[in-house]
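cron nightly-structures :: item 1 of 1
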Amino acid sequence: MLADVISRDDIRGTYETIRPYIRRTPVIQVDLGELDAAYGIDGSYGVSGVSRVSGSGLPAATLKLEQLQCAGSFKARGAFANLLLRDVPAAGVVAASGGNHGVAVAYAAHRRGVPAKIFVPTVSAPAKVERIRSLGADLVVTGERYADALAAAQAWAASSGAMSVHAFDQRETLLGQGTLALELAGQAGEADTVLVPVGGGGLIAGIASYFAGTVRVIGVEPDGAPTLSYARAQGGPADAPAGSVAADALAPRRVGDLVFPITQSYVEDVVLVDDASILAAQQALWRALRIAAEPAASVGIAALLAGAYKPEPGERVAVVISGANMAPSQLG
């Protein structure tokens, strides 16, 4: 039963537990036509080969600004849920991450006075690596991809007794990420659809569990890292390509075993966007709205502006802007 993994009441209880440690991030209403006008269709923003749809008829959208969350992304929710709902041993915690989860676990451990060891792959963005170090965690850079860092973290947990905090395939992680949907329901209660970035699937599984079919949930992935798309095609988690401008956040190779059945029940569709569209959407968010979002956080906007997801007339759309752990120079 899905309810045995994560329920709306469980998410509500988790929110009360982690609420003193996280931010209730704001939402804003935006005219997508304004973003479309700033969308780099001619390469003038350093992006070429961009697909797009016409600005006419583009709807307004509600943006959930989770890049303003503690530690710079939604991952803080799951990190605090793990540290507050589980018994943390004296050896502390260990996590593998493409970057954002590592920052979040390091931040939560710092706030709670807990030792933390974080394993990241070489594709992790330098800004995320530096942020982890600055929070006092013991950082190890190993392997080319998230899966390599995960294997090293699991070995460390087995040898040290540290508590493993999984980036997406852990019940407490899903509970924490689901609290974003709880907030969004109160802020944009009439939304018909929410567009959610997908990597390992922790965020979309938490959000989908909270809404449980009452809101249409659409996953958005880079076409170079289609983890959930591959899983749906194969009938279960399967290794997918892991190459994209968003690879440090949205390319764990496969979705989680806990994640997949939730998405099968409550995620209506998954759409893909290419790297050029992602980068153009990132630039449009900055140029038009002064919203600093990393590439992974820009995929939902890319899906709307490039036409990967086309809302019906009158459809009320919300988009999760998931994080902003990057160097300012990325905004060009």
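cron nightly-structures :: done
Strands lie at 27-31, 60-65, 93-96, 116-120, 138-141, 163-164, 193-197, 216-222, 269-273, 317-321.
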